[in-house]
Design brief:
Elements: H1 2-21, E1 26-35, E2 45-50, H2 60-75, E3 79-80, E4 89-97, E5 101-115, E6 118-127, E7 133-142, E8 145-171, E9 182-190, H3 195-206, E10 218-224, E11 237-241
Length: 242
């Protein structure tokens, strides 16, 4: 009965530890935004169009991904125009996903083994004051516990994909030869090849850098959380800057 109680307590403890160590997926997004020298950024109305030759702005994925941009662009002071004729800025929106590749890595983890939880019988020879020897038999209980047995080295591989998007702003009164006003790119490498999953995460990481010059590539950690009830697309994240 005692052994059973000890095992029951260990199961409870391990269950609590498992719950504590379970972690929410975290994504590292690399964001780089640059502004052209002497760029005139006073214009605030934009028209969003596809920057990809084979995808139009009427594409269903383009429409879904475009919705993620509206709120961050508005926070940056940019207003979506009713039509192209009413806009001052043309935003070219491009996105994609790499084919993926295997990445090999080595991990070291501690190895523990569960020992004990049993009663051991022993025999001991005793000698009294008169020199007479006798054999005494007894028992001792060995508690059930984990013992550290050293580290285990494992080599594993994982298929990783890189999702990305770019947003390039140009004056609408110019042409294709006119230099961009600013350009932002975001990339995220992860085990998922689902761009619909990664897009809101990458946009969330980039939201503070639209129409800004980062000066270098920013590395931003995004911890995924359940989306608000008002948001239909899954994968709404929270931002943790590194």
């Amino acid at each position: 009965m005692k052994n059973r109680c000890v095992i029951h307590r260990l199961i409870i403890i391990l269950g609590v530890m498992t719950g504590m160590t379970a972690c929410t997926p975290t994504y590292l997004v690399r964001v780089d935004s640059i502004i052209a020298p002497q760029a005139e950024l006073s214009a605030k109305t934009y028209y969003l169009d596809s920057g990809m030759a084979n995808i139009s702005r009427n594409d269903l994925y383009f429409q879904e991904f475009s919705r993620y941009l509206q709120a961050p662009l508005e926070k940056a002071g940019l207003q979506m125009a009713a039509g192209k004729a009413e806009a001052a800025i043309l935003l070219h929106f491009s996105y994609g996903m790499s084919e993926g590749g295997n990445v090999y890595y080595t991990t070291h983890r501690p190895n523990y083994q569960l020992v004990g939880g049993e009663t051991v019988t022993y025999r001991e020879t005793k000698t009294d004051s008169s020199g007479t020897q006798s054999v005494v038999t007894g028992t001792v209980y060995v508690p059930l516990q984990y013992h550290y047995m050293g580290n285990v080295t494992e080599t594993n591989s994982e298929m990783l994909y890189t999702g990305y998007f770019s947003l390039e702003a140009r004056a609408l009164d110019g042409d294709d030869k006119t230099p961009p006003l600013w350009k932002l790119t975001a990339k995220c490498t992860s085990p998922t090849a689902d761009l619909r999953h990664l897009m809101p995460i990458m946009v969330q990481a980039s939201q503070a850098y639209f129409s800004r010059n980062t000066g270098k590539e920013m590395r931003i950690k995004i911890k995924e959380q359940a989306p608000p009830k008002t948001v239909t697309p899954a994968g709404s994240p929270s931002t943790v800057k590194q």
